[in-house]
């Protein structure tokens, strides 16, 4: 009877065993929350209709401009015109400029929007804003009134404007395009004017400096006699002669004479004049090179000035308007019909999502498919809820219901369960001792165990119901058996036989009940004694023995009794048993080595949870 404990699947209300969502689960979800979904739809539609009724009509206009394929820009580095091909970065920059506050403020100024009460009326019930605040308000309103679009890699940029007045909408669209074109020309003109002024200043400054350096060069040549090319030769010839004379005097021993001193002084003078001549020639060379450089810069500045000045008359704008905005004849918004349709669809989706959230937060088991998903065991039956009958709305008697209404949904579901359960094994392998338990109290465990035993007896089996739930004795009461119960002490010492305590169920020839006194404490020794002395006889005497045990999570006796059973069935009450409780029950039973044959979902409202599998029953008239 030991079985390996298996990990149950992750809980999920609407996931099928295969991991997807079944159409039946979604349909049941909608049925259970139909009024919530309808209320959300009605509320959202009413709020939307009220909102649309007070919204003013909005007119929409559209203008388009084409950017030039290439731009000719004046380089700030060398003051030369350079061509730049338009790329995505440049186009993105243009679009950012069109959405900038500075550009919007320029448009507002050119279109006189700061004083236009039609465009933005001044607030009447509020303090009058100051000038700067009002300008910010107008610019903000203007930025919110238009959008900039570009289709793919196109060079065409579309300006779309919205306004409550159709003329204003068209005027804004055309004004934005015209302002961008005029601004691009004005900016280029400003750059050229600045460059021309700069180059003219450079030409004047370079011309003056060039003239000054030429005067310095002439003065240097005149004062240093640099135009006399024979002077250095004469000085060197005279220096060589004096050097030879000095050498002869020193050879004759007259190196210290007065004549020798005079010659040395003349030699020093000549050397000084030669050094000064060399320095002046170097200065002359440097000055000539600098004059050449100034002359080149001067000529370059003149050439660039001559190139830039004519460009002012042939400037090309960065864009040209290719589509003019026409005055709209019908409002573009609000589209009340389409808006209500979209809101209806959105409210349906919202209602479904809230229903899904409600189902996700509701961690109770609702039907057989969910019980199978949570427990990892087959759901053998879905027992429908039986409404109270009669004028006094008395609770139903499940045993008498099986006899009086054999074609009811309750009876058919029990019969279907017994057929499914017994057909899963060959007759020789069929369990004879079946334990019926639940996670906690008030889940219909005793009702299901009693009805299970009664249905099997009606099917021709010899059945015994062991009422181990001595605290409540619910199964004995349901079967209308008033038994004193078998004393456990007498059972343990062999002074009493279990047959003496067995009581037949009225109107059921093949159904007996064996109960025990209230407050009986079942120890492991007593259960072992019962298993050794009684269970073999029960297997011989009866075709089926149903054990009605206490709830598995609230009493340890359920696990103890399960050790003598061939199989355990777990009763789940729809809408009450939580997923965690069901999982904990399955795990607790398996840890004790008890084979869990499956679940039975009890008290299902068939109008909300329609089943077509997993042992579901059908209501018959």
UniProtKB/TrEMBL annotation:
Residues 444-590 form the AAA domain. It holds the Pfam family AAA_31. GO terms for cellular component: plasma membrane. It catalyses: L-tyrosyl-[protein] + ATP = O-phospho-L-tyrosyl-[protein] + ADP + H(+). It comes from the Bacteria. It is a multi-pass membrane protein. The chain crosses the membrane at residues 34-54. Its main location: membrane. Keywords: ATP-binding, Cell inner membrane, Cell membrane, Kinase, Membrane, Nucleotide-binding, Transferase, Transmembrane, Transmembrane helix, Tyrosine-protein kinase. Residues 25-110 form the Polysaccharide chain length determinant N-terminal domain. It is found in: Cell inner membrane. Belongs to the etk/wzc family. PANTHER family: CAPSULAR EXOPOLYSACCHARIDE FAMILY (PTHR32309:SF31), TYROSINE-PROTEIN KINASE (PTHR32309). This is Uncharacterized protein. It comes from Paracoccus salipaludis.
